[in-house]
Structure formats: structure tokens, C-alpha cells
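Input (structure):
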């Protein structure tokens, strides 16, 4: 008989070992992501954070174990940088509209598409450059547009790979709080790779730590993981803001 977590989880990792070409880069671990929670993914370069995302998305095969998504779950992914051809003449609002393409067609377009796009741009602070070419935007502005696309798509589960990497500390904090507000408004689950741990300590329900010094991938409540001996030894500081999670 399945457990409660197995029946409610949007995504589950069971004995999952991630890596490349059959070679693991992290220990096997179990994880169940529940509706409405915010999980922060931290760790140094090359420890497996983005590899795990790519495995969850089906872009990489697990070395062992398995990933299972709840049937029909709406999942959105915000990469560090959108893979959009810079020669393709998309405006910022066009990129946001891509988040609404599920269920659209030329015969039966969504009647509320312009309103939904405008609302998402406004909600994420990107309305001021909605009609500028996406390729002409700064990296920080592009990330705002990608967040607007996420907002428009109304996912149940959102994976964000360093969504604040091109922002200064003030913009980074504001953006993380915006992501948390969107999560609460829409009841979605958010998994975010992030290096600004001041906000993570404040906002995250749980933390996942990938680190070669750990015998296991650490998964637990925020204070438990950030208080773990390996974490405190490798990421020193009063609030551990200096974590290199890029």
C-alpha cells in the first residue's frame, strides 16, 4: 500500500544516483516534493545541482534509481539563460506568451492571452521592457522575463536554476521574495538553485545540499541542513551567505 508521500508527491526520486555517461557524481538519495513547498538546492560548482535538474527533466538518464512525476503534473523550468536564438526577433512579451502555448492552436487561440501576458509582466516587474527585443535586454531583465513566463504558465511544480545569477544583492533578494510570493499565491511547489542563503534561511521549507564532502546528499528542513557539520565547515559565515552555488 503506497505511503501518504507517494500519493501526494508531485515528484519523487527513489534511490536516485545522478551523473554522466554512467559515472555517478553524487551518492544515491530519496526525495519527495510535496505540493506548495519551497526547496532550495545548494552546493559548490560541479557537485550535481544542475545535473539533478537535467535528470528530473529527462535530459539525462539516471545512473541508477528512478525519477517519477505525478501523472499530469504541470512542470515549468527556468534555466540560467533561455536557449532562444538571438537572431529570432522575439519581443519580451512574445517570450512570456510561450508560457501559454499549452492547449493553444491557430484555430482556437486563447482569448485572454494578451491580458495574461500583461498581468505576468506586471507582476514580475518586467512590464517596462515588454515591447523591447528580448535579445537586447540585460541578463537580469531576461531573467525577469523568464519569471513572467513562469508566472503565465501557472505550473504546479517550478524548477529554477539560479534565477538570480545576473542580479545584484538587492535585486536578488527582491526576486527570491517575489518567487516565494508567486508560490504562495498559486499554491505551486518551487525548487530553486540559489546562492543567496540569507533569503533561503528565511523562505525555504527544506534544503538539498550537494557536496563531495558529504557521504550522502543532505535533504531536510532548512535549519537542519544549514546547521549540519559539513555545511558549517565548508560554508562559514554568520548567516552563511558566501555559499558558492553557481
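Output (sequence):
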Amino acid at each position: 500500500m503506497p505511503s501518504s508521500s507517494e500519493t501526494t508527491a508531485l515528484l519523487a526520486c527513489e534511490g536516485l544516483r545522478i551523473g554522466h555517461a554512467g559515472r555517478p557524481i553524487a551518492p544515491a538519495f530519496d526525495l519527495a516534493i510535496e505540493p506548495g513547498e519551497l526547496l532550495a538546492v545548494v552546493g559548490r560548482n560541479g557537485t550535481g545541482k544542475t545535473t539533478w535538474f537535467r535528470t528530473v527533466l529527462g535530459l539525462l538518464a539516471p545512473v541508477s534509481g528512478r525519477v517519477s512525476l505525478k501523472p499530469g503534473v504541470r512542470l515549468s523550468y527556468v534555466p540560467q539563460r533561455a536557449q532562444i536564438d538571438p537572431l529570432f526577433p522575439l519581443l519580451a512579451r512574445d517570450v512570456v506568451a510561450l508560457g501559454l502555448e499549452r492547449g493553444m492552436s491557430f484555430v482556437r487561440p486563447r482569448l485572454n492571452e494578451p491580458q495574461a501576458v500583461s498581468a505576468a509582466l506586471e507582476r514580475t516587474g518586467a512590464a517596462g521592457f515588454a515591447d523591447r527585443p528580448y535579445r537586447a535586454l540585460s541578463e537580469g531583465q531576461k531573467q525577469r522575463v523568464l519569471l513572467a513566463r513562469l508566472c503565465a504558465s501557472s505550473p504546479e511544480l517550478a524548477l529554477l536554476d539560479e534565477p538570480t545569477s545576473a542580479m545584484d544583492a538587492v535585486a536578488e533578494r527582491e526576486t527570491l521574495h517575489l518567487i516565494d510570493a508567486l508560490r504562495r499565491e498559486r499554491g505551486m511547489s518551487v525548487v530553486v538553485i540559489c546562492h543567496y542563503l540569507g533569503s533561503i534561511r528565511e523562505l525555504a521549507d527544506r534544503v538539498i545540499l550537494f557536496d563531495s564532502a558529504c557521504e550522502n546528499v543532505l535533504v531536510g528542513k532548512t535549519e537542519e541542513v544549514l546547521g549540519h557539520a559539513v555545511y558549517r565547515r565548508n560554508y562559514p559565515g554568520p548567516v552563511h551567505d558566501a555559499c558558492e552555488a553557481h
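Notes: Residues 92 and 134 are 5 Å apart (CA to CA). Residues 1-74+156-246 form a domain with the Rossmann fold fold (CATH 3.40.50.300).
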